Amino acid sequence: QVQLVESGGGLVQDGGSLSLSCAASGRTGSRPAMGWFRQAPGKVREFVAAITWNSDRQLYADSVKGRFTISKGDASNTVYLQMDSLKPEDTAVYYCAAKYWGPTGTMTLANEYDYWGQGTQVTVSS
Q1: Cα angle 58, 18, 24; round to 5
Q2: Widest Cα–Cα separation across the chain
Q3: Are the C-beta atoms of 98 and 24 separated by less than 8 Å?
Q4: Would you state the pLDDT for residue 28?
Q5: Which of 43, 52, 106, 125 is buried most, with the most CB atoms less than 10 Å from its CB?
Q6: Which residues pair with 37 in a beta bridge?
Q7: How far is CA 67 from CA 13, 63, 90, 109, 113, in A?
Q8: What is the Cα–Cα distance from 35 to 8, expressed in whole angstroms?
Q9: What is the full per-residue pLDDT of the chain (126 aa) written as tens digits?
Q10: The pLDDT of residue 119
């Protein structure tokens, strides 16, 4: 069993910045790929960003490219999402996810991930 805990969400003005963090615990001997997804009320969960287990590749949704930056911590089972130039359309619950099983895949599909955090609310006011 793996537990993922997100933090760093909040309320920010249009154009502002927030930094999200996610820490995974409860599993040893693995190096997961990790990703961020978001879901707004009445909307489907959508891909935001992902990073490979060794940080050699990072992927971003077109909607956040150039504004968001994903990175892993030294412990490997931690992931961060720096969000700059936030827009009202970025308002959503943001979820951290970890992939342990099988091939790397695309890293952009929610059903590729094995464990999920409970989410942290990000609200951008206009």
Answers
A1: 55
A2: 45
A3: yes
A4: 58
A5: 52
A6: 47, 95
A7: 15, 9, 11, 21, 24
A8: 16
A9: 889 999 999 999 999 999 999 998 886 567 789 999 999 999 999 999 999 988 899 999 999 999 999 999 876 678 999 999 999 999 999 999 999 877 878 999 999 999 999 999 999 999
A10: 97
What's the confidence (pLDDT) of residue 76? 64
Which DSSP category does 45 fall into? Answer: -
116's CB contacts (< 8 A; 6+ apart) are: 4, 95, 96, 97, 98
Structure tokens that stand for 14 in this block: 């249009």
- Whole-number Å distance between alpha carbons of 125 and 75: 34
The C-alpha atoms of residue 116 and residue 3 are separated, in whole angstroms, by 8
**Cα-based angle 79, 15, 42 (whole degrees, multiple of 5):** 70
